[in-house]
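#lab-general

N.A. 3:47 PM
ok so I finally got the sequence cleaned up, no stray characters, all 299 residues accounted for. can someone with queue access submit it? mine expired

B.Y. 3:52 PM
send it over

N.A. 3:53 PM
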Amino acid sequence: MVESGISDYPQTAPGTGSHGSETENFLLLFNAFFGFSEQPFNNTPDPHFFFTSRRHCEALLSISFGVKQRRGFIVVTGEVGSGKTTLCRQFLHQLSPEIKTAVILNPKISGTHLLGSVIHDFGIECRGRTKRDYFEALNKFLIDGLGHEQNACLIIDEAQGLNVRLLEEIRLLSNLETSKQKLLQIVLLGQPELRDLLKKTSLRQLRQRIGVYAHLQGLDLEETQSYIHHRLTQAGSSPEQIWFAPQVVAKIHEVTRGIPRLVNTVCDRVLMAAYSQQTKEITSDVATCAFEELAFICA
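B.Y. 4:20 PM
back already:
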């Protein structure tokens, strides 16, 4: 077996050093070797790479149903790296124009700041800066939108970071409703700790208002293989050009537990090892070094 580290990788093509950094040259060579138009295993929430596993499809349908049917609170939980943010981006990507959205990525803020961020993201003009000013402006925006057959959706990512007081203030936003329907749909995305947080007795009013709940789990073995093939294809290559041995896929699934972010990390390192050996056949010998190097990340 050939031991491979980053230092073993070709860094620049002859005569190209003056046209870019060593990293850029390396990526050009790497992508050209495998036939990639872009990196296949980047850990970014790109809807282009959204993989329709059974659980992710169910979660996406649940969010879409909950928002369109005005179910109020929609909660999606999942382990770190399970694809919650990518799911959110895919949902936003396919939304129809009549559904207005606001997205909060950092919920560890005060109640007034949270409301101000919601107002800003919806594009609402508000002269005042008090909580009451924000609430009244939001209410007017939602009622006006309903009159134009519009819907509104507030998405809060990393919602496990919310404290009980903030969650209670978010619950009060759900009081913005008519006698027949909710004016604001609220999607909470978070790690399993969010589920534990919502079990608190002090949050029972919010918990009882949850209209849709979904939990993302890791991919199974078959889905892991399909996920790898999907990412390769979306990046411009194909499983026919780059062959992952069945035992390698099984090992990837075992060490990552089918968590997409970890699958990406391991596959990226495995491809680096394969490139250093100038092979497109990902065998156990090629991948072993990568598994050893990343064991602590996947633990």
